[in-house]
Amino acid sequence: PVSQGVSRSRVVVLDRTRIDPAKWGILESDPAGEEDRLQASLVETRRQILAVQERLREALGAKEAQIFDAHLLVLEDPMLIEEATRFIREDLVTAEFALHEASEKYAEALGKVDDSYLSERAADIRDVAQRVLADLMGQALCTGLADLTEPCVVVAHDLTPSDTAMMDPAMVLGFATEVGSRTSHTAILARSLRIPAVVGLKTACRRMTTGDYVLLDGFNGVVVVNPTDQTLFEYGQLEKEQEDLQVKLTEIRDSPAITLDGHEIILSANVEQISDTLAVLESGANGVGLFRTEYLFLDREILPDEEEQFTSYQRVAQAIAPASVIFRTLD
After folding, report:
1. Which of 103, 164, 165, 255 is 20 to 30 Å from the Cα of 175, by its Cα?
2. Beta partners for 176?
3. pLDDT for 272-296, tens place per residue?
């Protein structure tokens, strides 16, 4: 289990066909042309990732959007780019084959590291590489998620962070993958989007077909194919307990935070941008205990001037008033 919740729906199995370019040679006089193609695709992919990042920032906030900083760094990694360029020059191969070989070399090396967080970064490298390859080869990077016509549970071998960031929670009620871990960027995004998810099911794509009815349990890491009425009833009770808990939390939202022996505790919220203040007010938090001002400085070429910073802080203070806001200024 990597994202809590229960969903029941028909399955859509995604046929994730990875782009695996064949080894094509080029003329000895044309390495420079292939290098130019590679650089142009790196620029275009950067534009695409920045667009996804901005969409995620608007929907979820700066913290979740920072996940794509790792993808942007892959595009600028000198070792990866130099390795691909060396393949083009020495082996006289196309830009797409050179990039594929170089990216797989580093992804495989990371995947073997005995550290779950570092090994998961191999998925980031492959995600970026697939985007560049799609641009180089003029192929649409389509996973089928954009073509969903009704709510479903998505089953796939794997889902990239880019896939997850583009999910519509109204259409994707949950997802299950054959690989992955709790520390993957895909899992982190699923929790932020509140989409129930189970990963590491190994043979899910072979054991389920599009149209199967499943119950996905994001609390215990279970997917039940064609659940019985008894199973559905039991999970209905579990969902009711969760709903009752939310109702109880809502009822005490505006109550003072006082322990049984009379000690008052200040419960405040951490926020990153003005849009987060709505969630602060809805949760009943006692103001903002930490406003992370560094988000103003992220993913931009020019530093914000004093007036822009003042306006941002003022809007947060006005939205939270009369409660207080503690600002952490950029170090």
Report:
1. 103
2. 155, 198
3. 777 788 888 888 899 999 998 888 8
